[in-house]
């Protein structure tokens, strides 16, 4: 049997409620497929840790995590006790950057058994991948404030797009599109208004496209692209976007499939020089924390993606199949119109393995 070293970081809020369900599902599937996961449970990278230590993580966090095969992550953020930019720039955003997880892969799927908020859509009509640039772009700390607190106050925050960073996410998206049956790639752009960086993204995409003659490239401005997520979601296959555009699209997409409680993500360093990180798209949901009603599927599906990227495809498929079955049969959490608890749903998924 193969052994993998996994760092388990529940984080804050419902991260602490959905993580046990991912571990339950992993334990079932790893037993069935004879996989050994050597888990390291981590209580830092959380706002509780910050409250106690005045920092989100120990100084040597990078060496502690660097030789892991993967990181399984819940959610971070507890804005009542720690400002979000402190907690997120002190944890998740450091992981993405320092471990060069430059791809954020976020599947969007309408499942059988899940009521769709869009009229006339059935399972299978929505099935696409958002490929989000994950290390640069709009997420920089370059800039500053001057004349703070006065009428002359000026605030500047730069966006930084590098050729390396842009080309590699475009290539990854083209490769993905090439492997899919529809071979269609949408580029989120805004080259009418954001007149320096976005026309350049278009140019980079055109150049990368020459290596993929069988992939059809469709550039859409982010505003109408968002509208089409709602009106014509069947039009999308792979969607590639800058960091911020991809962030927004990856909540909007899942909302169109019923609930963001289903949406998983894989923060990838595809070359494997550093560990990749797997986490739900959603956050710590302070509004529902403590009631055991969070949907655990996003977390469990993220754990399945982890298995897939470790090369354990059969285990991934079995886990996804169990998720699909429970979405049809129930039990279902309230965001899916049911009354089940996080635990009920997690147990049902694990039992199906
Ligand atoms: P959120 O994703 O935590 O919650 C948005 C809404 O979706 C809430 O109404 C919540 O109850 C609901 N929701 C989220 N996940 C759900 C689930 N699994 N089941 C059912 N309902 C679910 O976004 P927010 O409210 O903007 O952020 C809350 C905190 O989480 C903030 O601190 C924010 O910075 C942080 N955050 C962290 C991550 C992350 O760690 N990756 C992602 C997004 C937000
Ligand atoms: C996400 C989250 C993060 C992001 C926040 C918490 C910094 O919204 O993973 O989508 O913006 O990337
Ligand atoms: Mn987000």
Automatic annotation (TrEMBL):
Enzyme class, first EC level, given as a word: oxidoreductase
InterPro entries: ICDH/IPMDH, IsoCit/isopropylmalate_DH_CS, IsoPropMal-DH-like_dom, TTC_DH
EC number(s) per entry: 1.1.1.83
Tagged with keyword Oxidoreductase: yes
Keyword hit for Lipid metabolism: no
GO molecular function annotations of the record: D-malate dehydrogenase (decarboxylating) (NAD+) activity; lyase activity; magnesium ion binding; NAD binding
Family: Belongs to the isocitrate and isopropylmalate dehydrogenases family.
Listed name of the protein: D-malate dehydrogenase (decarboxylating)
Organism: Nitrincola lacisaponensis
Taxonomy of the source species: Bacteria, Pseudomonadati, Pseudomonadota, Gammaproteobacteria, Oceanospirillales
């Amino acid at each position: 049997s193969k052994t993998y070293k996994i760092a388990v970081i529940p984080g804050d809020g419902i991260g602490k409620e959905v993580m046990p369900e991912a571990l339950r599902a992993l334990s079932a599937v790893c037993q069935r497929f004879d996989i050994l996961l050597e888990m390291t449970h981590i209580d830092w990278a959380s706002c509780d840790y910050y409250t106690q230590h005045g920092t989100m993580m120990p100084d040597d966090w990078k060496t502690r995590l660097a030789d892991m095969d993967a990181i399984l992550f819940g959610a971070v953020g507890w804005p009542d006790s720690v400002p979000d930019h402190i907690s997120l720039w002190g944890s998740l955003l450091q992981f993405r950057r320092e471990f060069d997880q430059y791809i954020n892969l976020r599947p969007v799927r309408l499942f059988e058994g899940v009521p769709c908020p869009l009229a006339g859509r059935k399972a299978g009509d929505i099935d696409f991948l958002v490929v989000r640039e994950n290390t640069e772009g709009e997420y920089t700390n370059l800039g500053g404030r001057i004349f703070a607190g006065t009428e002359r106050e000026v605030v500047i925050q730069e966006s930084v797009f590098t050729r390396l960073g842009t080309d590699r996410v475009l290539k990854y998206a083209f490769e993905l599109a090439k492997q899919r049956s529809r071979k269609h790639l949408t580029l989120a752009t805004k080259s009418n208004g954001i007149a320096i960086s976005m026309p350049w993204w278009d140019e980079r995409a055109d150049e990368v496209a020459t290596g993929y003659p069988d992939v059809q490239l469709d550039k859409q401005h982010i505003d109408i692209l968002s509208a089409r997520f709602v009106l014509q979601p069947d039009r999308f296959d792979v969607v590639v976007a800058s960091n911020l555009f991809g962030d927004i699209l990856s909540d909007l997409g899942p909302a169109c499939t019923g609930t963001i409680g289903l949406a998983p993500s894989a923060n990838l360093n595809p070359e494997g020089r550093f560990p990749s990180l797997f986490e739900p798209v959603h956050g710590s949901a302070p509004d529902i924390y403590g009631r055991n009603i969070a949907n655990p599927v996003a977390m469990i599906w993220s754990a399945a993606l982890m298995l897939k990227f470790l090369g354990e495809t059969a285990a991934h498929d079995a886990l996804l199949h169990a998720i699909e079955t429970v979405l049809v049969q129930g039990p279902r959490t309230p965001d899916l119109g049911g009354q089940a608890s996080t635990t009920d749903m997690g147990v049902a998924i694990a039992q199906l393995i």
